[in-house]
Amino acid sequence: MKVIFLQEVQDVAQKGDVKDVADGYASNFLFPQGLARAATKEALAELEAARQAEEKAALEDLQRAERLAERLDGFELELKTKASDTGTFYAAITPRRIAEELKHHGFVVPSDGVAFKVEHPIKEPGEYEAVVHLDHGLEAEIKVIIEVA
After folding, report:
1. Rounded to the nearest 5°, which phi and psi values hold at 128?
2. Range of the structural domain that residue 15 is part of
3. CATH number at residue 75
4. 76 and 92 share a domain?
5. Regarding beta strands 114-116 and 18-20, do their DSSP bridges make them parallel or antiparallel, or are they unpaired?
6. pLDDT over 70, % of the chain
7. pLDDT tens-digit map of 61-74
8. How far apart are CA 91 and CA 55, in angstroms?
9. Whose CA is closest to 25, among 40, 38, 42?
C-alpha cells in the first residue's frame, strides 16, 4: 500500500515521504498512530501544493534576508551614552544594545546576531566595526559610532 508519511518514522521515512509499505503495517500501526495516510490522488495533490507553498515561503524568507543584508551593509549607527569623568562608559556597549538600536532604525535583527570585531568590551567612545549575522548564513558589516552624551 502506498502511504504519505505525516511524521518522521525512525528508520522508515521522513515527514512528507511517499512509500510503499505492507497493508498490515499501514492499517494496524501507521494509520491508528496518525503517522501516515493513504496516498490517494487528492492526498498527493495536497502534498504537492503544501510543498510548493513551503518552497515559496522559504524563497520569500531568503529574499527578505537578502534585502535586509543589502540595506544593513555599510550602515552607520550612531549612539550616545553617558560616560564618567575619565571618559569611560558606565556600562559596556553590548551586541544586544546594538540590536535594540538597530530596531529603532527599522532593522529587525536577532539580539544574539551582532558581533563586534574587537576582542575587548567597548567602554570608550570611538568607531567600531560590527558584523550582523542574519538568517540563511547572510552577514552585513556595520559601523558603530559611539559618542559621549
Report:
1. -135, 145
2. 2-62
3. 3.10.430.100
4. yes
5. unpaired
6. 100
7. 999 999 999 999 99
8. 44
9. 38
